[in-house]
Amino acid sequence: MILYVCTWGIGFKSKHLVIRLVLGDLYLKMPFIGECAWNSVGFCFDRWTWEKKKD
User: Fold this and answer.
1) What pLDDT is recorded for position 16?
2) Cβ distance 37 to 30 under 8 Å?
3) Is residue 53 part of a domain?
4) What one-character-per-residue DSSP string does 1-55 give?
5) Does a structural domain hold residue 38?
6) Is residue 10 a part of any domain in this protein?
7) How many Å apart are CA 27 and CA 18, to the nearest integer?
8) Which domain holds residue 7?
9) What's the pLDDT at 30?
10) Into how many domains does the chain fold?
11) What distance in Å separates the CA atoms of residue 34 and residue 28, rounded to the nearest whole number?
């Protein structure tokens, strides 16, 4: 588990979960779900999909 503070914000990382709070921006990366970002431009969500092998 890592908590870091930078010039413009803070962040948290625990294994594959990432949360970043930066000036005007929120970023979340969740394992097996996807990642989302929310800022002044809008909200963006990218879902990760893994296709199963079809034999």
Assistant:
1) 84
2) no
3) no
4) -EEEE-SSEEEEEETTEEEEEETTEEEEEETTTEEEEEESS-EEEEE---PPP--
5) yes
6) yes
7) 8
8) 2-47
9) 87
10) 1
11) 8
Residue 55: inside a domain, yes or no? no
Instruction: Per-residue pLDDT tens, the chain, 55 aa: give them.
Output: 899 898 889 999 998 899 999 988 999 988 878 889 998 888 988 887 654 444 4
Please report the pLDDT score of residue 50 as a whole number: 53
Structural contact between residues 37 and 24, judged by C-beta atoms closer than 8 angstroms: no
Distance CA 40, CA 15 (A): 28
Question: What is the pLDDT at residue 13?
Answer: 93
Whether the CB-CB separation of 35 and 22 falls below 8 Å is answered with no
